[in-house]
């Protein structure tokens, strides 16, 4: 009886808290430029943009994500995602929506499902599964950690990995673990909302993806010095 009574009181308390919070749940938004950087390469130095934006309330939001790379004035890689996001646990959101790969051509569309949040030891994680029109299934894992030397000087190691269920030779993608990217960036927050940074970035194409790149006369691995800004508002 005591356990049932405690459970009932907790349920009532939680319901009251949620109801009270709903009276003060304003519509908010945020635009985050995670990376806007130049990468020093053997050929034309690419300009890379990695940005997110969201609008919504405490539990429910709509997200826009994009990754774009330009080299020699031309767009070489471009991806957009439009997602509905729902908070499902403290520090964790479930996201579902649509992803489109614009470059390299041809276009590819995917159903996007994933989780975004803060893992143990304060790792920021963005993990997704993408189901394509032709039965192609891919997965992506992004993870980042922030080490604070001071309140303004912050070192951020990060990793990104992409997996695919089958070859897509038209866009140079092979099955299995396709590519990996490791980065290390040191930023100085002039303000919390604005921080220039420098760093190094390593990319590696793997397996069949590396084979497709070699057939096209492309490099399969690259180490680049980077300089850019991180900002949000």
Short description:
The protein is 13% helix and 62% strand. With 233 residues, it is mostly beta strands. The termini are far apart.
Description:
This protein is mostly beta strands. Helices cover 13% and strands 62% of the residues. The protein has two helices and 13 strands; from the N terminus they run αββββββββββββαβ. A twelve-stranded antiparallel β-barrel has the order 1-2-3-4-5-6-7-8-10-11-12-13. A hairpin with a 3-residue loop joins strand 6 (108-119) and strand 7. The longest helix has 21 residues, at 2-22. Mean pLDDT is 90; it is low at 1-22.
Distance between the termini: 51 Å
Helix content: 10-25%
Main sheet, how many strands, which sense, barrel?
A: 12 strands, antiparallel, barrel
Strand order in the largest sheet: 1-2-3-4-5-6-7-8-10-11-12-13
Provide tags for this entry:
62% strand; mainly beta; disordered N terminus; 233 residues; 13% helix
Summarize the topology:
Blueprint: H1 2-22, E1 28-40, E2 47-56, E3 60-71, E4 74-89, E5 92-103, E6 108-119, E7 123-132, E8 137-144, E9 147-148, E10 153-164, E11 176-188, E12 194-205, H2 207-215, E13 221-232
Antiparallel strand pairs: 1-2, 1-13, 2-3, 3-4, 4-5, 5-6, 6-7, 7-8, 8-10, 9-10, 10-11, 11-12, 12-13
